[in-house]
Design a protein that fits this description.
The protein is an all-alpha fold. It is built from 1 helix and no strands. The relative contact order is 0.07.
Length: about 50
């Protein structure tokens, strides 16, 4: 029984660290995509300004 408890604790700790890793990576990817999107809109605005 004690062994099962230790394994469960290990799995839970691993699961939570994995979850934090995924969430952190997702937020990094979102920020990166946001920066790309902002750059694209800025370039689009400059093109529109030059066109007019």
């Amino acid at each position: 029984m004690h062994m099962i408890y230790l394994i469960m604790r290990f799995l839970l700790a691993f699961y939570f660290s994995f979850l934090n890793y995924i969430i952190f990576n997702c937020s990094c990817v979102k920020n990166f995509m946001g920066l790309l999107f902002i750059q694209k809109t800025n370039i689009g605005n400059i093109d529109g300004f030059v066109g007019s």
